[in-house]
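Quick question, first post here. What does this chain look like in 3D?
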Amino acid sequence: MLNLSAVHHIAIICSDYPVSKRFYTEILGLSVLGEYYRAERQSYKLDLALNGHYVIELFSFPEPPKRPSRPEALGLRHLAFAVADIDASVAHLTAHGVVTEPIRVDETTGRRFTFFADPDDLPLELYEA
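> Answer (accepted):
Ran it through. Tokens below.
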């Protein structure tokens, strides 16, 4: 058995580093653990935490290729964040100009959820837990 213990981090490549940095820190509220510029790769690496836990590596690279999101493409579908109050979370996103889909109910769990997108159209989900 492989004996995995947890998800260590999720890596995201963005097209506009300052815009994505602002989105993930100021709008979603992730905290910065470290920010590094790698001159040889012309790349930033931003380590982000959620509630003190390292969760996302945000990278910038010159001219990254586009990745299709819609219609749903093969591979990673979306990244979901648990929230206690989906109505307050949607209101926060809306106040910051982030468009969300209508809130739906998970037919299996009865929990409410919605989708929205990051600045590069990466699908993100809020799931009321």
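Residues 17-27 form the longest helix (11 residues).
Strands lie at 10-14, 31-38, 43-50, 53-60, 79-83, 104-105, 112-117, 123-128.
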